[in-house]
Amino acid sequence: MRIADYIRDIQDFPKEGVGFKDITPLLNDHAAMMEATKQLLALVGDKKVDRVVGMESRGYFFATLLAEKLGAGFVPVRKPGKLPFDTISQEYSLEYGTDILEMHVDAIKPGEKVLIHDDVLATGGTAEAVCKLVERLGGEIVQVNFLMELSFLHGRDKLAQYEVKSLMSY
């Protein structure tokens, strides 16, 4: 089963000139979704993982499945004002301007082994910000993984100090 066959290209979304990789066909097919989860787990191998951190919102889908299969806790990362408890925040650069991500202050304990997951590695800004949040809480990043990578955007460069893996590269 080729996971790439379940990724739909949407042109000019969310704005003109952008080619969006839509994972909803993958999520709609149980067998494909389970195969993608199996392949993502294979990327992790036998690494010990205490927490799986997923980025809002499409990163949550597979991060929760990975956490369940790894026997780990799940940590959501969200935009400002969306988490109900005390948070730490990290600003990061976008193509035009900046944005902020937040995580609960008690989400990760010092020394815990952390897998960071998102659906797409594009420019790397979001993943880099999440790495900083995890490290500020004392977590040890064992891997940063993605369903797919847009290699022409060179996001991997911002994550050079981490082990980065993805199932597919465009």
Automatic annotation (TrEMBL):
Keyword field contains Transferase: yes
Leader sequence residues: none
Alphabetically ordered keywords of this record: Cytoplasm, Glycosyltransferase, Purine salvage, Transferase
EC number assigned by the record: 2.4.2.7
InterPro entries in the record: Ade_phspho_trans (IPR005764), PRTase-like (IPR029057), PRTase_dom (IPR000836), UPRTase/APRTase (IPR050054)
Record's GO cellular component terms: cytoplasm
Glycosyltransferase recorded as keyword: yes
General function of this protein: Catalyzes a salvage reaction resulting in the formation of AMP, that is energically less costly than de novo synthesis.
Record-given protein name: Adenine phosphoribosyltransferase
Encoding gene, per UniProt annotation: apt
